Amino acid sequence: MGNWFIEYLRINFIDALMNYGVADYLRSELNNGDTNYYSTLDRLARDNGYKNGLADIVGSNLERVEDLARMMLYVLMNKIIFYKVLEKNYQLPKLPECKSPANYLNELRKLFENAITVTNDFEAIFITGLYDEIRLPDVPDICDVFNDFIRLLDEIDVLQIGDVIGYIYEELIPAEERHRLGQ
To answer: What is the pLDDT of residues 25-38, one digit of tens each?
Structure first.
C-alpha cells in the first residue's frame, strides 16, 4: 500500500472534491446562506478551542475558507476509510452508491451512527463536531468521486490500511498544510 494510495487520496478525493467547488460552496453558504450555519460552525470552532471561533480558521472575511473545506474533507475521508475497516470486522452494511451529494452525507451520517451503536465504540472518530458540518454542492460529479473512492476501498485490503493509517495521515497531508490547518 504506499505512496500510490496516498497520492490517490490526495489527488482523486481531496483535490477532486475541492475542484468541484466544495470550498466555494462552503463560502457561499457562510456568506449568503443560513446564518444559523455560520453560528453553528462558530460555536463548534470555539468548542474545539479556537479562541475567536470560526474566524480563527477561515479568517474574518472568509479568505481562508479553503482550509476549513480541506479539514472537513480529510475528516470525512478518514471516516469512510475507518468505516470500511469496521465494515469487514463487524459486518456493517456496505456503503451505498452516491446518487446525490447532499443526500449521501445524510446516508453516511446514519451509517456512522449505526457503526457506533453496533461496535459500542468509535464515537470520537465518527462524531467530530465542527467537521461533521460539511456541506457539498449538488454537482453530480461529486458522486463519481465518492463512488470511485469506495470502489477502490472495496478492491484493496482495507484491513492493511489500518496498519498504516497513521503513516497515511502523515503523508497524505503535507507538513505545511498540516501546520496551516492546525493539525
So the answer is: 999 999 886 789 99
Residue 147: which of 16, 10, 5 has the closest Cα? 16
Task: Output the CA–CA distances (angstroms, integers) from residue 90 to 16, 76, 93, 115, 176, in the order listed.
Answer: 30, 20, 9, 8, 36
Q: Cα(51)–Cα(66) distance, rounded to whole angstroms?
A: 20
How much is the pTM?
Answer: 0.89
The predicted model gives 85-93 an average pLDDT of 91
**In sequence order, which ranges of 96-139 are alpha helices (DSSP H)?**
101-119, 123-126
Q: Which residues of 104-138 are buried (b: 16+ CB within 10 A; e: fewer)?
A: bbeebeebbeebbeeeeebeebbebebbbbbbbbe
pLDDT band at 171 (very low <50, low <70, confident <90, very high): low
- Tell me which residue has cell 465542527: 130
Cell of 72: 472537513
